[in-house]
Specification:
This protein has 376 residues and is of the alpha/beta class. It folds into four domains: 37 residues, no CATH class; 126 residues, P-loop containing nucleotide triphosphate hydrolases (Rossmann fold), CATH 3.40.50; 49 residues; 120 residues, Zinc Finger, Delta Prime, domain 3 (Up-down Bundle). It has 15 helices and nine strands. The strands form three sheets. The protein has a five-stranded parallel beta sheet, with helices on both faces. The N terminus is likely disordered.
């Protein structure tokens, strides 16, 4: 009996044919077509190479799924915002229209609304990107049912304002959808110093020594630290020499421009703009309790200046007798003239109560900050 043949080489008639070593093979029918041949087999043997390619394809699909469904949570809001922005920038670069991207605010979001967005079909884009921004820390589990079905054409990113335990239903729902949940832990001690040093060198072109100096004099908030590093880098880029004295002078507390806007609208009573500025600060990565801390510093400063005014001190005398920047003193001096000391003291108490309620887990930090501003 003639040994079976397999298609490996092309003969004069356009057929692929070569002798085998006698091993059994699947019968092959040759269908000649102009300029090409098609081999139609009843059963295609699975060779080791095919298995390898199949495994690689499955691994790529799993990896893509893990990066297409992403949950970011934890105590370090700045890292959450940074990771979210980096992911969204990559996703948006592959979209061809605005129809492919949707942002949902976590506050007030319902599971049904989230599910509708996840299941929505694509229009002009290869996929849809859905971004859920800062779900309050006490509501993530209610969002879990919305993730029961995630189409392959949907990319989902959820950020949570707080840390979720491993048994949280939302984390389990993400895992069931073959997604990834990442916790951004609060940095302190050596970890904070190392992060600042890397940030100073890699992002801002400064030295590790300057990073260490920033850590020593700045509150342990990554957003404030990064803002201070940006300030120093801008000063260096202007051509000025970044001496030790200049660094000390420039490190005045972080994000002063935005904080000034907030405090300008804070007293004697908060305006509607104050709440919007506070929200923008937290969305930019600043912890709500850090915003409250800066508010308390400003109220305490105004209260102290008001006491000096009551003692008959002039603006010049107040500026000479306090360590804050003279411009900061001038602004606070003007506000203090129209402020009631009793209201200032009550404001400090309200901020103190807010911080205690957040740290004890009684209220959500973001919602509590809105309520605090309405109380003031």
């Amino acid at each position: 009996m003639t040994a079976p043949t397999m298609l490996t080489r092309v003969d004069a008639r356009g057929y692929r044919r070569s002798p085998t070593d006698g091993a059994k093979s699947t019968p092959t029918k040759i269908i000649p077509l102009p300029n090409r041949t098609i081999a139609a087999t009843r059963a295609t043997p699975i060779w080791p190479g095919s298995i390898g390619r199949t495994i690689q394809a499955m691994a790529r699909a799993a990896t893509e799924r893990a990066t297409n469904v992403l949950l970011l949570h934890g105590e370090e809001r700045f890292l959450i915002v940074e990771a979210a922005n980096s992911t969204l920038d990559k996703w948006k670069s592959e979209l061809v229209s605005d129809f492919g991207f949707e942002t949902l605010e976590g506050t007030g979001l319902t599971p049904s609304r989230l599910q509708d967005s996840i299941l929505q079909a694509t229009f002009l884009d290869p996929y849809r990107a859905v971004f859920v921004r800062m779900v309050p820390g006490n509501r993530p589990e209610s969002m879990a049912p919305a993730l029961a079905e995630i189409p392959p054409t949907t990319r989902l990113l959820i950020t949570v304002a707080g840390r979720l335990g491993p048994g949280n239903k939302l984390i389990k729902a993400v895992a069931a959808g073959r997604g990834t949940a990442q916790e951004m832990q609060h940095l302190k001690g050596r970890a904070l110093s190392d992060w600042t040093a890397r940030r100073a060198v890699d992002t801002h072109g400064l030295t590790p020594a300057i990073g260490a100096q920033v850590v020593r004099v700045t509150p342990p908030d990554l957003s404030i630290i990064d803002s201070e590093l940006s300030k120093l880098a801008a000063y260096k880029a202007s051509g000025s020499k970044l001496t030790n004295e200049a660094v000390i002078e420039l490190l005045a507390g972080g994000r002063e421009d935005e904080i000034f806007k907030l405090t300008d609208n804070l007293l004697p009573r908060p305006t509607a703009q104050a709440m919007q500025i506070a929200r923008n600060l937290t969305r930019g990565g600043l912890q709500p309790t850090s915003v409250a801390y800066r508010m308390a510093r400003h109220v305490a400063l105004v209260l102290e200046i008001r006491a000096r005014q009551d003692r008959g001190e002039s603006l010049q005398q107040v500026q000479d007798g306090m360590s804050e920047h003279r411009f900061v003193i001038q602004k606070a001096f003007e506000v203090a003239q129209d402020s009631d000391p009793g209201r200032l003291e009550n404001a400090l108490k309200a901020i103190r109560d807010y911080e205690w309620e957040v740290k004890s887990g009684q209220i959500d930090a973001d919602l509590g900050l809105d309520v605090l501003l309405t109380k003031l």
